[in-house]
Amino acid sequence: MDLPETTTLLLRRESGVLHLTLNRPDARNALNATMVAELNAVFDAIAADATIRVVVLRGADGHFCAGADLKEMMAGGLKAPTAGEADPVERWSRSFGAMLRKAGSLPAVLIAVCEGAVLGGGFGFACVSDIALAHREAKFGMPETTRGLPPAQIAPFVVERIGLTQARRLCLTGAQFRGSEALALGLVHACFDDEAGLQAQLADTLQQVLRCAPQANAVTKDIILKVARMDMDAVLDDAAAKFAVCVRGAEAPEGIAAFMQKRQPRWAS
After folding, report:
1. Whole-angstrom distance between the N-terminal and C-terminal Cα of the chain?
2. What is the pTM of this model?
3. 109-114 and 54-59: which strand pairing?
4. Percent of the chain residues past pLDDT 70, beyond the cut
5. An example of a Gene Ontology BP annotation on this entry (predicted)?
6. Do residue 201 and residue 236 come from a single domain?
7. Tally of domains within the chain
8. Are residues 218 and 205 part of one domain?
9. Mean pLDDT over all residues of the chain?
10. Of 210, 226, 244, the domain-final residue
11. Residue 256: inside a domain
12. What integer pLDDT is reported at residue 78 of this predicted model?
């Protein structure tokens, strides 16, 4: 499936891996309305394309994402809508939450490369990723409350990622911290010190993901994400039905045969 044309994103496909780069370097890759709309469209396309097995999300020129583009938001005007009129600020905010949810629920594995500024919306991307790698000196934080704003669409994903207690501390203080502390919090999974270290970790991570069957990974991710969002019996019933479909699908016979024959399954070779 073709990916949409974009002006704020760089897209590069490579053997089942889509490298998606936020590309507003002059603004430290801050999210404006155009970027949010383009990300929503790209995530819709990825979700419909089974050939994309991994998405590597990174920012251009050494910064991941500095959050929302507040200059653009303020320039757009803050006049309250008239009766019966949709609130454009509310609509923009909600579109950002929709984008984060799409990113987190992609059938493909989402790897976030966190370096430089990982603030606000960038912090949100780290929280919805399946795997997050961080530069040891990357700067994480949610400064929204220091700007007189709530991290409205980000906070729920922060709670899911690191728990209520730490989410309350970070959201209500606007505290900023480095990648090494993000690792200790469980926000990210590994740290790197330089580009060579990142590329080594990324190559190893991609190798591990790509040896897993793509449909099995997509189904597993769907089951995991339903925990705490559905009644546990409903989660287990749904998981059992998905397991039965996978047993009778194309991947399980190949994966089991490869294991018995001591070879790589075809999706990993």
Report:
1. 23
2. 0.94
3. parallel
4. 99
5. isoprenoid catabolic process
6. no
7. 2
8. no
9. 94
10. 210
11. yes
12. 64
